[in-house]
Write a structure and sequence with these properties.
The complex is a heterodimer. Chain A is an alpha/beta fold. Chain A has helices at about 40-50, 70-75, 95-110, 115-130, 150-160, 180-190, 205-210, 230-240, 240-249, and strands at about 1-10, 15-25, 30-35, 55-60, 65, 80-85, 165-170, 195-200, 215-220, 225-230. In chain A, the strands form two sheets. Chain A has a six-stranded mixed sheet, sandwiched between helices. The chains are: A alpha/beta, B alpha/beta.
């Protein structure tokens, strides 16, 4: 589903990713763990199409199509979703207005008609309820004044409504208390099925207690340095990243 | 006359002097007031960039010629309308037609009211002096005197429309008295033909009685080659409240001035602006808020969206006089530059002579936030849609205090139209 091959990325002449290769199959939940500064967030931004980065080599294929030349909105329409580590506050744009615009924009690009107001309201209400989101929050400007946990829940709500083929969760656990973490994890688990892929980026193992991955990849200095099963996460929790930081240096 | 008369240099200044000489005998009202106003104008001429308050809008070079005075014309079929705003008076080339009026409202031609001594020109100007107001005072023949009776509540739409085949000039004056305890919603719209360098100089004087409330909305959709000069001069009696919004998308060169004088304690003022300009448009919002008495409150919020190589100007002066203790003034002007060649001059000024006051100002100028754009695009919104959503949100804040739903909806729609009209 998602195939990243030999990806090299720079920002302002500084190399961040050094030949990163990573494949995620349909139905797979892959986790990337790595120390701060290993390039995890850069990877998520580059896949989603943020402009600031220069890809000097490699390719990113989504269902066999290279998405590197696509605009972020085209990637979204192709089925890619990034749950941001720091969701942006958008003053003046009501959350509902935004959700509707996003859903309809993606439907339009797939040649589907706009959602009826009734269907839209129903979908949002159900998804919000499952994530314990107060309906009043949906009337407020997007993410403005939301707590860290509320912002992360809002990301998962968007994921639930947009139903992407491939979702990347960038440190979705950061800033969450244990209850919020469980709700967010349940939101992700509810969407696991054989057709959807997930890439969960995290610094800590605790998220992976709740979203149990099929594969775990260790990232250091802009590359994947080790791949395996969930046992790797437990190992890292015990011994830390020192071994990998040293190895890649 | 002991004023020193400088040689009048530009063709426009010469033509203005000729027009005053021809018209003065036929102008209604106190001749001395008109003569004094024209004498002040003659002393300085049209303001150039050397005059501080006109530094960013060099009228002397922007108005080289005076267009001929507009004649009478028929009322056009299509006029701006606001849903649920009942009473509309149409002013074609500054001349008011008759129309049904809400209860508690009396309207008479300016000339009649001046001749009978029921109104005086310039009463709402306070200590402010301004050249284009002087010119209007000297030359305005057409206009209206409007009175809202004590305790009445009324809504009125003044539809100014320029109708002409060639460029014309219009000077019109509206004098509004809102009696104590009355409430008025006053909407001004300005429309005119594209492609003609018409010149408008419209002055609205607004005297709020004790406890009176006024919601004023001005919509400038003048023709794309027009020079649109306008002034709102208001005095606030004790406990009165004025909210005024200027929405400006039209004209080649527009300048809207607001002069507010606090005449009684405990008055509140909210001035807002929503400007959306493109191409080579120039739009100037200039405010002078004069807190002359204690316990006054003023809020200013101006949002300017500038595309292409258009130029925006905001000048906001808050004066707090020695007696005006406990004044609370907050002013913000924020500009969003969409075009690479777009420009904005932001000039907030506080002149504070009292020691127990709360005053603040903030001015910002920048492009759309790239991170916000990326976030919206990552959710599937194409760039133009993402930009439109952010621009609408930016401008909408200046509109959100408009209480009349029909007006607010119509104004919000104008933001969408502006963004859809962008040529990219």
């Amino acid at each position: 589903m998602l195939k990243i091959n030999n990806l090299h990325v720079e920002i302002d002449g500084k190399k961040i990713l050094n030949g990163l290769t990573l494949h995620v199959k349909p139905g797979e939940v892959a986790a990337i763990m790595g120390p701060n500064g290993s390039g995890k967030s850069t990877l998520s931004y580059v896949v989603a199409g943020k402009e600031d980065y220069t890809v000097t080599d490699g390719e990113i294929l989504l269902d066999g199509v290279n998405i590197l030349e696509m605009e972020p909105n085209e990637r979204a329409a192709a089925g890619l979703f990034l749950a941001f580590q720091y969701p942006l506050e958008i003053p003046g744009v009501a959350t509902m207005t935004f959700l509707k615009a996003a859903m309809n924009a993606q439907r339009k690009s797939r040649g589907e008609g706009e959602l009826s107001p009734g269907d839209f309201m129903k979908a949002v209400r159900e998804a919000a309820k499952a994530l314990g989101i107060d309906p009043d929050m949906l009337k407020r400007p997007l993410n403005v004044g939301f707590s860290g946990g509320e912002k992360k829940r809002m990301e998962i709500l968007q994921m639930a409504l947009l139903r992407p083929k491939m979702a990347i969760l960038d440190e979705t656990d950061s800033g969450l208390d244990i209850d919020a973490l469980r709700i967010v994890a349940e939101g992700v688990n509810a969407q696991r099925d054989p057709r959807h892929g997930f890439l969960v980026i995290t610094h800590y193992q605790r998220l992976l207690d709740h979203i149990v991955p099929d594969t775990v990849h260790v990232m250091a200095k802009g590359r994947i340095v080790k791949s395996g099963g969930p046992e790797i996460a437990l190992e890292l929790e015990k011994h830390g990243y020192a071994e990998y930081v040293g190895e890649a240096a | 006359m002991n004023a020193t008369i400088l040689p009048i240099r530009t063709p426009a200044e010469t033509a203005l002097a000729e027009r005053f000489a021809t018209e003065r005998a036929r102008l209604p009202g106190a001749a001395a007031v008109r003569a004094a106003a024209f004498a002040r104008f003659e002393k300085t001429g049209l303001p150039s960039r050397r005059v501080e308050s006109w530094h960013y809008t060099d009228l002397r070079s922007l108005m080289r010629e005076l267009a001929p005075a507009a004649g009478e014309a028929a009322v056009p079929a299509a006029l701006p309308e606001f849903e649920g705003l009942g009473h509309r008076l149409v002013l074609v080339n500054g001349r008011a037609g008759a129309g049904p009026l809400p209860a508690g409202v009396t309207v008479e031609p300016l000339a009649t009211a001046l001749a009978a001594g029921r109104v005086a020109l310039g009463a709402a100007m306070g200590a402010a002096e301004d050249t284009i107001v002087d010119l209007n005072t000297a030359l305005a023949r057409e206009g209206l005197a409007i009175r809202i009776a004590r305790g009445a509540e009324a809504a009125l739409h003044l539809a100014f429309v320029t109708v002409a085949e060639t460029a014309v000039s219009v000077a019109s004056r509206i004098v509004v008295e809102v009696e104590p305890g009355a409430a008025l919603t006053l909407v001004e719209t300005h429309t005119g033909p594209d492609g003609l360098a018409c010149q408008q100089n419209i002055v609205v004087e607004l005297a709020l009685g004790a406890g009176a409330r006024v919601e004023h909305v001005r919509v400038n959709e003048s023709g794309d080659a027009a020079l649109a000069l306008s002034t709102l001069a208001a005095t606030l009696a004790a406990g009165s409240a004025l909210a005024s919004l200027n929405v400006s998308t039209g004209g080649a060169v527009s300048r809207h001035q607001v002069f507010v004088t606090y005449a009684g304690e405990g008055a509140t003022l909210s001035l807002r602006g929503a400007t959306m300009i493109k191409g080579r448009q120039h739009c100037d919002n200039t405010l002078v808020v004069d807190h002359a008495v204690p316990h006054g409150e003023s809020r200013e919020l101006f949002r300017t969206v500038i595309d292409d190589e258009a130029q925006g100007v905001f000048q906001g002066k808050i004066i707090v006089r020695p007696d005006a203790q406990k004044t609370d003034g907050q002013m913000a002007s924020n500009a969003l530059l969409l075009g690479d060649e777009a420009g904005m001059a932001n000039k907030p000024e506080l002149e504070i002579f009292a020691d127990d006051v709360v005053c603040a100002h903030g001015a910002t100028c920048g492009a759309l936030d790239e991170n916000q754009l990326f976030y919206l695009m990552a959710r599937g919104l194409p760039k133009p849609e993402a930009e439109a959503l952010l621009v609408e949100a930016f401008v909408a804040e200046a509109l959100d205090q408009v209480r009349h739903e029909g007006i607010r909806a119509a104004l919000t729609a104008k933001i969408g139209a502006f963004m859809r009209g962008r040529a990219r």
